[in-house]
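Help! Submission page says 'invalid entity' but I think these are all valid:
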Amino acid sequence: MVIELIVRISSGIPGLDELIGNGGGSFAENTVTLIYGPPKVGKSVFSYQFAYEGLRNNEPCLYISTDYGLKDMERNIANFGWNLNEYIENENFYLIDAISTISGGEVESKPNYLLASVHNPTDIMVKLGMALRQITSKLPRFRSVLDSLTTLMAFNDEVLIVRVLTIYIMRIKESGGTAIVTYTEGSADSKVENMLKAIVDNIIHLDGENLTIEAMIGSGKVRAPYNITSKGIIVD
Amino acid sequence: MKRTYIPKLDDILGGGIIDNASVMFSAVPGVDYEAFGYQMLNGRLKDGDKGFIFTNVAEPETIVYEFRSYGWDLEKFLQDGQAFFVDGTSPFMGLPSDAKYSIKDYSQVEEAIMEAIEDVPDGIGVINNLSTLIDYLGEDETIDIIKKWNLHGKKYNTSLVYLFTKWDYNSNLIQNLKKSMDCVVEIKTIEERVIIGQGFMVAHSSWSEPSDTMVLFFVVQPGGVKVYIPKILVTGPYNAGKSTFVKKISKKSVSVDRKALSAFPTTIALDIGHLEYKGFVADVFGTPGQERFDLLLDVLGKESVGAFIIVDSTAPQTFARAKEMIRKTKAEAIPKVLVANKQDLPGALSPEEIREKMKVGKDIPIIPAIVTEGRGVTDALEALLGLIYGD
Amino acid sequence: MISVMFMEDHNMEFFDYLFEDAAPGDLILVYGPPKVGKSIFCYQFLYSSLVGGEPCLYIVADYGSRQLEQRMMEFNWFLRPYIQNGDVYIIDLLTRLAGVKVEDSGTLKFSSVQNLTDLMVKVGVSTRSLFRKSSKFRAILDSLTVIFAFNPPNLVLRLLKAYKARISEARGIGVVVHTTGTVEPSIENSLMELADLKLCFDGEKIQAESSAGEKFVQYTITDKGVKNIRG
């Protein structure tokens, strides 16, 4: 009998934990999962659910957002009936907002709300370091989301972003975190796309109808249909 | 003249380097040679000169840390502004840099280093690593840029030190690089299946006529580049002529025969000599032939860079023991020469016959010798040095 | 004894079958698309080597040495005792990038993914030490993916030639892992030319190709590693 040595954390997606780990969580702790697929299939919704699940369990979340600023995110999340505000207030939710500075709008930086720019990955890495120091001083377990790589690649050299992602992954793992990163299929050079798939631990593909586990530490390939409902993504 | 702060190197170069010299350390992959550049820089900074490091191999913070491990305080010089970085690493990885110059793109390298040279008149700049530049910029462009930097170095009286890893570049490129430098120091390995030693040798210098001596070194933390006198082992079965060989090959020698340290609770007999030949210096150890000294063989074998195996050409019954000793001394993994001694005696086997009987590969030279008359001793040494120098 | 049990338990005879045509001094290229079990194969190759008494060099280039230990533990392969005994040399290229202050200890060495000169220095030191420990040893470089992202491709090829020469000279068996489709086809071709034996993984079968010919085995990944499925 082999002792199960993998600690899995819950995904926050109804049905997914049952599909992957017999209900005992989805992602092996301390791993990084790539969520990819065509545009508008629920990659960001997936990210919200993953983050929110952690927040509800008192796990801090470090969120790097390149497409939605704080206000948009709060609204998007509220649409599913969840309240982000509470976690902004208790400083369990850390947001590196890499879009608001370029989309205009008055925003004020706070200890857990850090402004950066998609044009400047170096600055994102600086803010990442700042946020990680604060988070790890609180709790050894946390979640992180990087949504999305596509936008970073659109504004920067793609291979530079692969290097930045490599460092991001190492920093999250060495600090005890578990992360998901999102990417729009076909948006970068195929060589870069292959590199992305190689350097993450797990891969989930979304196509609007089916969710496919293409790679997952400790489990095999599985596919199941999913829907985006008023309560977020639900896997059948 | 400026000192290099590398032991022995100043002597070989006739006192040091000219103030505005361009110096290239050209190293075989696998040799630990970054310390050469850093040691020169540290010495010059301590003398009050200004200096910079261009890096495309590590973040400045890592280099500061490396300096510390050698026992050198780079941070102090950075804070005083006496030293600074041209950082070609951090921006490349999306990491922040507080270096004086940071390079986002390889097209900026040329200009940044030109400015850095101007910032350190009468000082020193270290380029680590030149090889990485070549594969980013292309061969011809790199040569052009180096020429410009070196001219600029002349103008501002700045020494430029390049660290170059000799990967599998074409010989044309390597020739062109060498031609662009005032001085080239080759850093080589001594190999026998694995790297067992490293040595440096001045290949060319525009202001002096250096000898082609290979100086063996290791890099220690703390301390940096330290030169050492290598050991050469003389071994072989009992009565093959080892003691005489040690005497003949050495400038001076001594036989130790006394109650030794507690590690060897018996009488040991050891012949120790010191040889100097065409600039190569080494300590020579003749080991006892009897089996009870095999432990000693093991210890000496680990520290040696070369070995002479002496056999009595008239005593084929001892050849098995000779092979056993080669194995015991770890001489399998150090360059070695077989000396077929006592060629003057009746019944002596020829080198070819010995090779056949001992089943020794062609890569091990077998030198006929009459050690008592000193014949074949120099040939054997030449053969071993050929193996050690690897050319 | 342990070795035999391990082999039986893990259905390892297909390893021997695949490596039949490899001799000491050879370079083996393990390649294929992402997530088909190339690294798991390497862990298994490493672990079977250690259990069988052959020391090993492992260059971990896509994550840190801590993650390597973690990942192997998922298969019940425990590296710690072998690290403590000095049977495995690990060169870790990424942990420093995480901003973690780490120091070399024993046979665990830290280098940087963009400093290939330093990597070769450490390969030199470790091959010397492994060679002295045992006349048979293995060296695994897993993988080239991140190295390619941090260095010009031609320099990576130069590194590989130096690596191959170093391992081959010491009569070790060298393994290099490459993710297909991460570099230009011309670079990929040069990689293929450097290898004495190529093992192509596609998720279902491992195709072995050398001058002795071609053969393949069907495989699957289980909690005991890469497992042969008999056809």
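Support: the input was valid. A stray whitespace character was the problem, and the output above is from the cleaned input. Chain B is about 35% helix and 30% strand.
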